[in-house]
Amino acid sequence: MRSYLAWSLAFISLVCLSMPIGMAESKRFNQIFGTLSLAMGIASVSFHTPQGRIIVNLPDDISSGDTISGSVQIDPVGRNDNERIKNQKLLDEYVIFLANAQTVVKDGDFTCQFSDSQAVSDLILKDRYGAILCVQALRLQPSLMPAAFQDTGRGASKSTKAYRQDFGLPKLGETGRPAECLGEFDGNFGNTEIKVGGKSVMMLAESPRKLIFESPTETVGPTFIELTENGRSKQANFSNLAIKVSMLHDQITKGQCSSVLIKVAGLTGISYTVPIRVVNRTPQVVSLAGGNTQVLYVSAKSGTAEHSLRVRALESGKFAVVAFLDLKPDLPAAKKKPDWDADL
């Protein structure tokens, strides 16, 4: 599996997508390479190895001087359970290095700090012997207060800019997907706890400006959310939605028409319409009525809403349509900036 001859080969550069924390470049050795994706406040770097994926979740707003926390997940491959278990053990032994932190994958999360002058940082994947297997370069934002935390009204001076000290807790979440809390954080998981329905949930990433967590799968419908950060707590009502996409046919013949059913559960008590984004992942195979990317606005007094969309086959084959909650995070309440930093 580990070949010292392979490690001596020249690495290949792969330019990835633009992201809020800057351009990212992945350098790989042999079969291992990195990719980048963005969703709900998360910058997720996936290292693809022969044993499966190692997924490193980072906040998407990393700035110079930040202390941040991230999480590490694995997705082993294999033809059967025994192979997947074997590959999981091998994935657990890899090591992640970022800024001043080195973490074994099996530990699951980490906290690190970037220097004030740091503009670029390498996210490095190593084997258990310390050999570098892949490098993902991240360009950091300047160390400035984000615009989302400022009063952007016309004519506002520096001394009247608002400073967020409260927490913005989400009103809605979707089972198994990320959700964001905005506010003043210290970037350290060790000082943070987030609960939904009285039960702690998985924290994915934290920066000084936000916390991203994974909405639980076992709780659907109206409940409450509670955040504790450095001794400060806030609680609010929260509704956790479950969104399911069912297809009349999973394989289609050219010229054939079929339908996709989108079912949203957990809407009890919600008096407003909820935006659900629908995306056709296979536009080369089917066309989706209403557009290959569209937003549905659903509501239901009964707690469950259903919506059917027609598809038409452009080619024969399998197709995929996904649907997910499409919301921006809730901003915290604003307070005037203290005098000592009014000039920032």
List keywords for this structure.
344 residues; disordered N terminus; 3 domains; Immunoglobulin-like; disordered C terminus; eight-stranded mixed β-sheet; 2 helices
Write down how many β-strands occur, each being a DSSP E stretch of 2 or more residues.
30
Structural class: mainly beta
Beta content:
over 45%
Shape: globular
User: What is the terminal separation in angstroms?
Assistant: 52 Å
Q: What is the tally of helical segments? A: 2
- Proportion of residues in helical segments: under 10%
Mean pLDDT: 83
Spans where pLDDT lies below 50 across 5 or more residues: 1-20, 145-164, 338-344
Number of spatially distinct domains: 3
Cα gyration radius (Å): 22 Å
Query: Largest sheet, if any?
Result: 9 strands, antiparallel
Present the secondary structure layout:
Elements (H helix, E strand, L loop, with lengths): L3 H4 L4 E4 L8 E5 L4 E7 L2 E8 L2 E8 L7 E10 L4 H12 L2 E4 L2 E4 L4 E5 L6 E7 L5 E8 L22 E3 L2 E2 L3 E3 L3 E6 L8 E5 L2 E2 L2 E4 L3 E5 L6 E9 L2 E16 L3 E2 L4 E9 L8 E7 L5 E3 L4 E6 L5 E10 L3 E2 L2 E5 L8 E3 L8
Parallel strand pairs: 14-21
Antiparallel strand pairs: 1-2, 2-11, 3-4, 4-5, 5-6, 6-9, 6-18, 7-8, 7-10, 10-11, 12-30, 13-15, 15-19, 16-17, 16-20, 18-19, 20-21, 21-23, 22-28, 23-27, 24-26, 24-29, 25-27
Question: What does it look like?
Answer:
It contains two helices and 30 strands. Residues 1-20, 145-164 and 338-344 have low confidence and may be disordered. The longest helix is centred in the N-terminal third of the chain and has 12 residues, at 81-92. It folds into three domains: 4-139, no CATH class; 159-240, Immunoglobulin-like, CATH 2.60.40.10; 248-325, Immunoglobulin-like, CATH 2.60.40. Strands 3, 4, 5, 6, 9, 13, 15, 18 and 19 form a nine-stranded antiparallel β-sheet that branches. The protein has helices at residues 4-7, 81-92, and strands spanning 12-15, 24-28, 33-39, 42-49, 52-59, 67-76, 95-98, 101-104, 109-113, 120-126, 132-139, 162-164, 167-168, 172-174, 178-183, 192-196, 199-200, 203-206, 210-214, 221-229, 232-247, 251-252, 257-265, 274-280, 286-288, 293-298, 304-313, 317-318, 321-325, 334-336. 5% of the residues lie in helices and 50% in strands. It has 344 residues and is mainly β. Strand 7 and strand 8 (101-104) form a beta hairpin.
